[in-house]
Design a protein that fits this description.
Blueprint (H helix, E strand, L loop, with lengths): L25 E5 L7 E4 L20 H28 L10 E3 L10 E9 L4 E9 L4 H7 L2 E3 L7 E4 H13 L4 H14 L2 E5 L5 E3 L2 H30 L5 E6 L12 H6 L72 E6 L4 H6 L1 H4 L14 E8 L4 E2 L17 H14 L12 H10 L15 E3 L1 E7 L4 E7 L6 H12 L8 E5 L2 H10 L5 H4 L2 E5 L1 H4 L4 H7 L14 H9 L3 H5 L3 H21 L1 H27 L3 H15 L6 H34 L7 H25 L2 H4 L8 H36 L7 H35 L16 H5 L19 H4 L1 H46 L7 H17 L7 H15 L2 E3 L5 E4 L41 H6 L15 H4 L7 E5 L20 E4 L6 E5 L1 H8 L7 H16 L4 H4 L2 E3 L9 H8 L9 E8 L4 E8 L4 E5 L8 H21 L11 E5 L12 H14 L3 E2 L3 H16 L8
Parallel strand pairs: 1-8, 3-5, 4-7, 12-17, 17-18, 19-28, 20-21, 21-29, 24-25, 27-28
Antiparallel strand pairs: 2-9, 4-5, 6-7, 10-11, 12-15, 13-14, 15-16, 22-23, 25-26, 26-27
Length: about 1300
Amino acid sequence: MAAISAASSLPQGINAPSAPEPENGGDVEMDDGSGEYEDVPDVEPEAEPTKSPKEKRLIPDETAEQLYARWKGLLPKLVSPYLQYQRSMSGKEWTRPPSQLSARCRQPENCKRTTFTVTSLFFGSFHTCTIVACECQSLPIVLIAHGLFPTAPHSPRMAISVELLELFLAVSERSSDAVTALAVALNRSYRSRGFVVRNAKGEMIRQPFRRGLGYALRWYDCLRVEIERRKEAAISAKFERSRPLLAPTTLPSVSPTSQPSTTAQATSDIDNTQRPLDEPRPPCASQALPPQNPDPTHQPAPTSSPQPVDEPRTPGAGRAAPPHHPDPTHQPSLTSTSEPNVGPELVEAARILYARCPACFGLKVWGRPLTQGGDVHLAVDGNFNHRHVRNAANSPKFYDPTYVLPKEKVDAVGERIEGARKRVKKKEPAVPDTAIDACEESHESGTGSTVKTSMEKFDSGGLAAIVCRHDIPLFIANIDTPGEQQKYAVALLEQVIELLPRNATIVTLYDVGCVLDRSVTNYEIFPDSVSRRLLFATSIMHSYVHIWSCQLHYNPRMKNGLGLTDGENVERLWSALRRLIGVCRNSAANRRIWLIDRQVGSVAQERRGELGVWLRRKLTKGVADHRAEALASLKKCGVSEAFLREQWVLQKEEELSLRAHKPTKLKKELNQLMGIQDDIDALSKTVATTTAQIKNSILPKSCTQHLKVLQNRLDGIHENAQDMYVSLNVNEEFPSLTGVDLEFVRKIFLLRELKQAVQKRATSAFWEFDKLDRAAGGKDMVLGTKMHQHVRHAMSKKTSALENAVKRYNSEVKHLVSLRKSNCTIPIPEPLPTSIADLKTSTTLMEAVWVDPVDPETHRWVRDAKVRDGIRAMHKLDRCQEELHRLGREADNMLRWYKRELTAVVEAIRDPQNSDLIGLLEQDLEDLLALSKAWGTVLVDEQKYRACTREIMDGVSRVTLTWMGHELRDGGGQSSRTDGNAMEEVRNDDGKLVDVDDGGVTDAPNDLLFDEDDLECERDEEVEISPEDICLQDLAEEQANGDKLAVDTGLLRALTPPELPSSVSPTPRNLYNPVSKRLHAILATDELQRLSSPSGWLNDDCVNGLAVLLHQIYLDSDNKEYVSRFIVFSSLVFRKSRETVIRQCRHLPYWTRDIWILPINRPDEKHWVLAIILPLRRRIYLFDSFAHTKSWQRDIPDIISFVESLNHYAESQGHPPSTTSDPWIAEPVISRRLQKNTRDCGVWVLAAILSCLRGFHVPDMTEKEITVFRSVLYRLALHVPTVGLK
């Protein structure tokens, strides 16, 4: 086997002795101690003297900081070559790059070159590449330009194929970041094919790629992030142009210290600046101005013709929708004020939110009342499984997260909350504090003091996240406290509020939403202008752990406007992130943030694409199924809906009253009183026994006097006990309990406590059963044997405790029945089923024990189970109707975003400033077009998306591409093309196009490599052909000869080359446009050198200057009348902004010319093409000497935009163009390749321009003739006066 050595003793940049490359398998020797390889030999090493262990480094040292700084400085330089490589490989089969790579140096004669040897990793093998870098193109740039990513920022010794890295990153998104597993798998694949890595001792290295692969994956992903953010900035700039604006409004003055954030910053870096949420902010891309409707909970009085808010499409609506409020963005008349006018108000969400969930944040009008569900529904929750050990070594910061909030922002919110708790606001609570206290004590997340993670071992206890109702994550926060404090939920919610309009209303679902709502109500955690736009509820799965009175107000199924939003969206996010728990626990802290942030972004992008599936599932399994079930329950109930609503209002009023919660406070005092009563009963029994014994002469009669004293004391104690009972104000708090036996009251209060205990135990047991069922059904992670046994053991313990609690409760119910008197109207609670399955479906489990007498006619919901079932069905039917309307609005939002995003992407593709991002933008365009089918629903069907697509694509380009195979008409003279294979491409062994002539650029401009005999022979048989015979009349008018195009076979005979001057002046030559008489181009020494050399590539000044020179020559000929129909534009005005095009072309009377010549320089391809534009006929004739058609797909929209910009300006100046409404037609003028090398494209374009000026469509020349034509152009340029041609 062959061996390759890479000795570490050699300086960087100097190659080790070369050896044959292991093409068909072989061993590679690598040195020990390499910074990029972890050498672990298979053999056991010899015993070495024990060394003192080094202290583990927890923070990055200066060397690591310098390494990461070099990486950060390198990445921006890799963007352009990487994009060029990606574009060159788009749609092509991957091929391995050659073994010898060289930099494309701009100044090869002055640039110092250095040779490197790099081991390159590919899919099935690795091999050693020899790479020549220079000062202007370093080794990493040369590598990335050929599809190889370095593993070190300076002089890397290993590089990895970007296709291989793309595959690894795609696998990581679906599994986890297992660098070691990937490295081992790659090494095993290599070894199975005979590619073995050895160290300098000849020992096989077990993990030769782990460290280098880890670096490459990390920094390659950072390169992708940099490019993604550039692409997003390009799309965002176009997207913001269609942002709706309100009329100008007068706002309070803004503090000069406040700085508005931009959209680009919002998409990459989260603003750390803390400001009051009610502080006025200037309008910008990510923030909006104060609302016009300050109180969204207030239902405004309807006007004579109220305007609906985003009226959705609702199929088959059988029930009336809740009334909509008038448009809150209506501007009142402005009065005179001294406050400054800051301009129009923005009325939509920031793009960072809009792009993450178009369904939630795509509203046109904001400010929907909270009684109707508000504008958006969000869910917040924490997870303490994503912990991070404290003693894990950290790396320098290398990634700016998009989703993770900065620690400084979260801590600032926590400090603000602590300060706000010192100032209590007195407000009437919606739910009594006793109920909220009970919920807070029963939840681990209810109080931030509950320790969930040992912070001595972990520096991060978990994660908190805020997610929209479509399961799309918006932001996450790192938990660094032992418990789940409120600052995390507040910081996440505040981050969203800052990116929404000032009148946006938000519903937030949280496990302990009741506790957070009380904190917001009692303390100024949010300003009043914000807190009144917030509504809190509990998540549906956790709501059943709350006591019944709390559920009446916070359960989303009992709250108006919330539809079928369940609030468990964060749990589904934790399920998607669970694979990162083990990976991130011991990772570096900054690497952990990178992994989590990128994984969250991947989840968000995937779920945005599944919005259509989400909507269809909600319509069928959500609305349709629940609606059918609710209608069946209502029919079975047999009670009118109006009566059920009256019963619900009465139930909520009764059970949320403060009097309903007095038993909790009264219970302890009653227990003390009942203890005294037990003592009284025992003493009374003793007195009675003693009296009987005296009467039966068992005791002497002398005891009678003492017995009377004891009886008097007993009567006094009994009277005191009655006074104590009266002092409890039971009759005042519960007047209906007047005269009720004290034992009965005590028992019913005891039952109330017992049932609450049963409810808590039942909820906990149901949770364990659900966890096991979901794992068995495949909805959740499969449980291992140990975890399965643990769950089963916990279930058995909880089931036993639950059964005992239910039995005791039922026993107390029977005892209460025995104590109840016949005239008592207090309802007796129903016994509970002892079976877990029956208990889970019981409708009375969550009902509270009623302690007041009730009227069986007015309080039927207390005694009648059918009425209770009917109330639940009524709620479910209301929620289904609300959900249907919300789904309709969300479907409209998605269509609206699709239209704006598609327009923005298309405009970004057309923008010449984004030429390097074309490939990525086109991929985004394809992904968007795929959404038209994925997002189609019965609310907004696929046809609407297709119509929207046609409207945008037709409105932007209006081009019908007709790639016609033209038959060439001979324009006179004999065709010089004699070899039928003359148009074959010349390629090297690697399949790449090469030049036939490898000559270099000459030093002297008059040192020509042309044969003078070639020039003379072309003038022997000169034939005069007038443009009237064969001209471009076919172009300006309808083609009379079908698809036949005129071929210019006598182009060289039409030009008389002047003699070479005796000396060439180095003074630049100014070339003026013959139409405007303004400077068009400058031919300096560099341009003349390019023109004189057969291998010189013509730049913009060469092509633009010679084009107007040819135009001037033919304007001075006998064909002036025909040539005056032409106008030549500069290539420098193409792909510029509309303002730039008008500024540089307004001096040209282009509206008087019907044939426009536009040379086009494609800098990314280093290739010249030509467009002949007929604006009156809306035709474009395209000339490409390579006969390629794919690249024109990108140029044609820009050509149309160029023409329309000039036409609009001409019309504004009183020169309306006489154009038709027909679509544009673009046709190539050649169907097979004319150019064989890679340098003469500019000369071919000038030949095509000359053919057009002579009245032909296409030149007919050989490679030899094009070289002669170049010499003619050179001589013409030398005869241009150095003082300028006017």
